[in-house]
Amino acid sequence: MTEAAGWQFDIEIYPAGWVFPAAPSWVAGWLWSPHGRIISDLRCWIDGRAFLAIHGLPKPGLDERFLHKPGPPYLGFTMLVTAHAGAGLFRLEVRDETGTWVELFRTPITVAPGAAPCPTPPTSAEVLVSHLDPLLRHRAAQPAAPWPALADAAVSAALAEPLNSLPNPPFHGALEEPRELGWVRYGRISVTGWLAHRHQRIVRVTAMIDPLFEVSLLHGLKRTDVDGVFADLPGRETSAFLGHVDLPASSGQPALLKVFAELANGEKHLVFARRFTPRVIAGAEAPLPPLSRLTFGRAAWALLRSARRHHLPGSPWSELGAALRQGWSAYAAAAPARRSPVPLMLPPAVAKAPTRPLRVLVVTHNLNFEGAPWFILELARHFAALPGISIRIVSPQEGPLRAVCEGHGLPVQVIDVSAALAATDAADFEDRLATAAQALPWADTDMVIANTMVSFWAVRAAKRAGKAALLYVHESSPVRKFFAPLLHPALFPVVEAAFAAADRVVYTAAATQVVHARLARRGNGVLLPSWVDASRVDAFAASSDPAALRRKHGLEPDAVLLVNIGSLCERKGQHVFIQAAALLKEELRFTYPGKKIRFVMVGARPGLYLEMLREEVARLDLGELATFLPETGDIFDFYRLADVFVCTSFEESFPRVLLESAAFGLPIVSTNVNGIPEMLAEDEAWLTPPGDRYHLAEALKSALAAHFAGDRTRATRARAAVLRKYHQANSLPQHVRLACSVADSR
């Protein structure tokens, strides 16, 4: 065993005398930090050539000796190294959870005759194409870090050769997702494939990227295409596996996914290892710095100088110029503009009514029990109650909110625009949209209000019909990233054009406006506050009994309820809520003996995500602690019966659930994403980073401690702040005044 730089390790397998043959060689061993540091990556260098390891492998005996448990984290590592002719130095480096690389070991080596020469590394132009965007994002996240250090880390990552692993017989299978690129949705990677064993029964398939957290995949699912050479393979018909694996922010680049199989005889085997480059298509990611030619130039220059330090081949100016143009185009399309948000409109002394009858078509993206449709329903009801304004609701999807709309006297029309959204070019989109829009009552319409940017098509249809259009944007994700899984890329410019075409683009959060600032034409973007109906909240609270509501929904009257409200989906982050519950399970049992503390998730809908959450609850033995309840229109019931409100979303513009939970006087634990910090301050709620189960667990502990101590300081401050800033009597008239002013101007 050797100790260096605060790590203990042993290299158990290596070429005898460090004399490398011409063929590839295995180097393997184990690594542990007595100071509790976590390995986020491991690599070796043969002179200037880097090789990435498969690290975090089970090491029976040693795992128990050092960790006092069988893991994770696991201590083992292995790497496959090909020494090139003339190489003279081997170095081993480890990267910890802070992103810092440290050298642990170095030794002179000899390479046998006949070894191949060193492969040609990437050119400086290739490094620019692949690493300008990551470097800009790293700089935005670490503005004090020197450009050379950030660039050297990027170039080192470009040089590293990954090691992947496939099953060895008697295992057979394929890992189908992720591939070389891994699509990240709300902090998770989808993992799919198939796996079977010729002689043994596979009882469990697990996967991990986070070295501390191993998740079970759903295995034993039907698979009909594993045949041919595998026609005699037992279990092939039920060999499919799938699931989601957390991608921690500290992961190395490229990230390492490991998949393990546990057999009925108790053995555990690594069956797949794959290095992949994460690409975030939904959820939070490191931001780009504001658009700046100076910043872009510094990043490009730093990469070029680092490429020279790493002795990479140069590129002709034609290739460098093409790489720079490509990099600038990508940066300009995604970077936030250097433009200040439009100030809030001042509330009028008297709500303004239209000077003539105003017939409004309100288009919402669906009729589900979700925040955005509820938002537009309340706005539509307020408009309809004013003299001279009539409202019709339009949606491309049916849903339970239709009955609620019609119950308030708001007619609903469902139209099919799926053909237009499936178009693969702008001209085809326009033709298909024109056909679908013929069903809309244009002769009886003066204005269209399109709710969410998914309703961008309604702005285009309104402009073609010569009608005024307002676009309400709730999404805090750039257009091209948000629509990547939904639309053909040829339609991205069509979506972006809707921002400029709308008479006004309305944002309820400054953070959302900043994301889209470059799209709106000057003067048509406006920041308007959302609202909470305080009188309705207070009336419901006064007329309802929490114990009776708990019985109504099958919840224990004497339990302390941590309630997470929102449609069960990856964006809402209920998997992080479950992981935090697992972290707290034993501690809460000892801290509050005899107390029933329950984690309640309201918004369950059938689907794979719910199935996976249920499996995770079962695997973590949280069956008594965690409860799933279906989507419901009786959402006020759950504010009233809750003890602590929890929001775990990865992305939210200005969530109404936080406004309403604050109005109900609940202590709030929430992620601090997008517009949420505009709504609630640090002394009004416990705010945590998205996707971070450790910080969430600490915040939940603090909220529970305050609850049991009777400390309602944060809850009281939150209610006062929300009612002061977002009372409906102040906010709703601003939305009416905006619509009327647009109508009058036309």
Key features of this structure:
7-stranded parallel beta sheet, alpha/beta, globular, Immunoglobulin-like, Rossmann fold, 4 domains, single chain
Task: Break the fold down into its secondary structure elements and pairings.
Elements: E1 2-4, E2 7-13, E3 19-20, E4 25-32, E5 39-46, E6 49-52, E7 54-57, H1 62-67, E8 76-81, E9 89-96, E10 101-108, E11 110-111, H2 124-141, H3 147-159, E12 171-177, E13 181-185, E14 188-197, E15 202-208, E16 215-221, E17 240-246, E18 255-263, E19 268-282, H4 293-309, H5 317-334, E20 358-364, H6 371-384, E21 389-395, H7 401-407, E22 412-414, H8 418-421, H9 426-437, E23 447-451, H10 456-464, E24 468-473, H11 479-482, H12 492-501, E25 504-507, H13 510-516, E26 525-527, H14 534-543, H15 546-552, E27 560-565, H16 574-591, E28 597-604, H17 608-619, E29 626-630, H18 635-641, E30 644-647, H19 656-663, E31 668-671, H20 676-679, E32 686-688, H21 693-709, H22 713-726, H23 728-745
Parallel strand pairs: 3-11, 13-19, 20-21, 20-23, 21-22, 23-24, 24-25, 25-26, 27-28, 27-30, 28-29, 30-31, 31-32
Antiparallel strand pairs: 1-2, 2-4, 4-8, 5-6, 5-9, 7-8, 9-10, 12-14, 13-14, 14-17, 15-16, 15-18, 16-17, 18-19
Query: Spans with pLDDT under 50 lasting ≥5 residues?
Result: 341-351
Under the CATH scheme, the architecture of the largest domain is Sandwich
Q: Count all strands and give the number.
A: 32
Query: What fold name goes in the CATH topology slot of the largest domain?
Result: Immunoglobulin-like
Helix amount, in percent?
A: 25-40%
- As a whole number of angstroms, the C-alpha radius of gyration is 29 Å
- CATH C-level category of the largest domain: Mainly Beta
The best one-word shape is: globular
Which strand order spans the largest sheet, edge to edge or round the barrel?
Answer: 13-14-17-16-15-18-19
What is the count of structural domains? 4
* Strand portion: 25-35%
Strand-pairing-aware structural class: alpha/beta
Mean pLDDT: 90
Secondary structure tally, helices? 23
In whole angstroms, the N-to-C terminal distance is 80 Å
Biggest sheet record: 7 strands, mixed, barrel
